[in-house]
């Protein structure tokens, strides 16, 4: 069937149900040893991490991400690695350059975290308490993945304080793309848990029903391969 427009009230209602599940908004306990920023296309993410750093939440920031997702809705929109663009954004907000480490080779969430862990281990830096900074609808998947990558270390997640009506952005996160991406991320969680990539999540029936209806309405451009 034709794609129902993303601003249709029914689509908005279903997308909001999925958003509310994916965004954790857990209270933070700081300070932590390091802030790890997951790569992406949205500069609001490193700017949020910079604010946390400047509040004294951590002494070190690691930016992650290479040139990723070629031909995908999440394709890197710069000619440089996402880690480089995110580092420059954080520096512009006031984070000292010598407080930032770059991991510019990863191409997905698991690699973002594993390569950041390897970088910290290689430098002999402590990372018993971690704060993962990402975009809002990636909070649940980011934490579930970090819980596997970092084992019994303490993991927290944070994202820009944007609610559903305010998050979509014409340049970094167009509304229709956000819905496609949220569905794709949701559909990756169960098989990724089966493969040991992330911890298993409890999913309310209403969320599964919202995803099924959105798929029926045509939101299927970011499905797992």
Write the layout of secondary structure elements.
Elements: H1 9-22, E1 34-37, H2 44-54, E2 61-64, H3 82-92, E3 100-103, H4 109-123, E4 129-133, H5 139-149, E5 154-158, H6 175-194, H7 205-216
Helix pairs in contact: 1-6, 1-7, 2-3, 4-5
Per the principal axes of the C-alpha atoms, what is the gross shape? globular
C-alpha Rg, in Å? 17 Å
CATH architecture, by name, is: 3-Layer(aba) Sandwich
Multimerization state: single chain
What structural category arises from helix and sheet content? alpha/beta
The count of domains is 1
Binned, the helix content reads 40-55%
CATH homology-level superfamily: HUPs
Which whole number gives the mean pLDDT?
Answer: 95
How many runs of DSSP E, i.e. beta strands?
Answer: 5
Strand content is 5-15%
Summarize the structure.
The protein has helices spanning 9-22, 44-54, 82-92, 109-123, 139-149, 175-194, 205-216; strands spanning 34-37, 61-64, 100-103, 129-133, 154-158. It has 225 residues and is α/β, with parallel strands linked by helices.
């Amino acid at each position: 069937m034709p794609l129902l427009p993303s601003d249709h009230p029914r689509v908005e209602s279903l997308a909001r149900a999925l958003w509310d599940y994916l965004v954790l908004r857990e209270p933070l306990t700081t300070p932590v040893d390091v802030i790890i920023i997951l790569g992406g296309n949205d500069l609001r993410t490193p700017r949020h991490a910079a604010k946390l750093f400047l509040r004294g939440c951590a002494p070190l920031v690691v930016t992650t991400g290479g040139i990723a997702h070629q031909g995908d809705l999440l394709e890197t929109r710069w000619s440089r690695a996402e880690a480089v663009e995110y580092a420059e954004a954080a520096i512009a907000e006031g984070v000292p350059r010598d407080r930032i480490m770059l991991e510019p080779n990863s191409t997905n969430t698991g690699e973002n975290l594993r390569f950041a862990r390897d970088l910290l281990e290689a430098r002999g830096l402590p990372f018993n308490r971690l704060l993962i900074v990402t975009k809002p609808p990636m909070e649940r998947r980011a934490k579930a993945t970090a819980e596997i990558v970092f084992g019994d270390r303490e993991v927290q997640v944070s994202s820009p304080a944007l609610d559903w009506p305010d998050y979509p952005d014409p340049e970094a996160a167009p509304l229709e793309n956000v819905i496609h991406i949220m569905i794709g991320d949701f559909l990756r969680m169960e098989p990724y848990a089966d493969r040991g990539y992330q911890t298993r999540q409890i999913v309310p029936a209403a969320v599964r029903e919202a995803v099924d209806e959105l798929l029926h309405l045509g939101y299927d451009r970011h499905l797992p391969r």
